[in-house]
Specification:
Elements (H helix, E strand, L loop, with lengths): L6 H19 L16 E5 L3 H9 L5 E5 H6 L4 H11 L2 H13 L6 H19 L1
Antiparallel strand pairs: 1-2
Helix pairs in contact: 1-6, 2-5
């Protein structure tokens, strides 16, 4: 008997492939301090945290980047350096847009959308790894 794919299970699966993609995209290099690493030493860290940004920013490619354990965990995202990176890389307009999305409120993702996003990020990850 096949287990039902619940939104919670699909969210976890999407995060696994999305975070692998983000770390590979950023060449396993912390965007806030420049440290290079692999495995659990490099995280996919949020500029605007998950607890504040909700699903509007949870899987947003311009809001999530590679960060070392120290910057992401011990320095709580190393926010000042992270903001400098966002401004330098994307500009003030993207920073403003991320802040707008933070204030937008709650967003839901359907089971179908989760499945589509999982497939999309699996493909993006494969392209990077070629």
């Amino acid at each position: 008997m096949k287990r039902k794919e619940t939104p919670a299970k699909l969210k976890k699966k999407l995060w696994q492939v999305f975070s692998k993609y983000i770390r590979a995209r950023d060449n396993y290099t912390c965007v806030t301090c420049g440290k290079k690493g692999e495995g659990s030493g490099i995280h996919a860290g949020h500029y605007i945290t998950k607890s504040v940004g909700g699903l509007s920013l949870y899987f947003h490619e311009q809001n999530v980047h590679a960060q070392c354990y120290r910057c992401n965990i011990h320095l709580s995202g190393n926010w000042t350096a992270y903001r400098e990176f966002i401004l330098r890389t994307y500009g003030q307009e993207v920073d403003n847009e991320l802040m707008r999305l933070k204030d937008k409120g709650y967003r839901t993702i359907s089971v179908l959308e989760y499945k589509q996003l999982i497939k999309e990020y699996e493909e993006k990850l494969k392209e990077i790894q070629l």
